[in-house]
Amino acid sequence: MTETAPATGKSRWDYVLGTWKNLDVPDGWRAEIVDDDGVVLVAPPSDPRNFIAVRITRALNRVLPDDWDVYQTLGIQLPSIERLYVPDLVVMPESVVLDPARTPCPADEAELAVEIVSRSSMDTDRKKKLWGYAHGPVPLYLLVDAWDENGPSVTLYEQPGNGRYNQATTVDFGDKIRLPEPFDLEIDTSRFPGPDEWRS
Questions:
Q1: What 3-state class would DSSP assign to 50?
Q2: In whole angstroms, what is the distance from residue 148 CA to residue 125 CA?
């Protein structure tokens, strides 16, 4: 049974989504719905996160078709689990982004989601969003984690099904990680800043 919001007759998700759309978020900040507690404000990205995002964007732009783009502030919704994320990067067809009837964009239309872990987002990016993107389902989830306890790493999650990813490939910072079709691209991580270069 779909839970309804008090006195509105709308589903809980419609109510929360409407609240999200009407937020007055400070410049540079993002608002996400990452769990059942509702809307969460996310601080502006640090310089190292911006640097990594630019490096990945440059690599992706070399192979993307003209009608796909890389976005840094695009909300994508997962209504089946009542979540809304604003990935650090997401690749989405422009036809979806420009369709006013599909705002925020459906997560299952994304081609790739990228999250760049900071000290404050470890649990969210490694667990909550991993679970959420698998339920999207988003076909590819790239997790850049300078704070991995085994050393800075990049993990590509693939083949979502039954609410989880069925394949994961991890490389250390300094190595290359390959994105499969439709990208068929190697991303060089050798210039990704390690934890000593992060301030937050």
A1: helix
A2: 12
> Residue type at 77?
Q
- Residue 111's nearest CA partner among 132, 94, 123 is 94
Q: Residues 58-111: pLDDT tens digits?
A: 999 999 999 999 999 899 998 888 888 999 999 999 999 999 888 899 999 999
Query: Rounded CA gap, 155 and 71, in Å?
Result: 20
What is the residue type of 78? L
Using DSSP, state whether 61 is helix, strand or coil: helix
pLDDT surpasses 90 at 47: no
Question: What CATH architecture is 45-197?
Answer: Alpha-Beta Complex (3.90)
| Of residues 64, 114, 128, 116, the one with CA closest to residue 93 | 64
**Full DSSP string of 103-138:** -SEEGGG-SEEEEE--TTSHHIIIIIHHHHHHHTT-
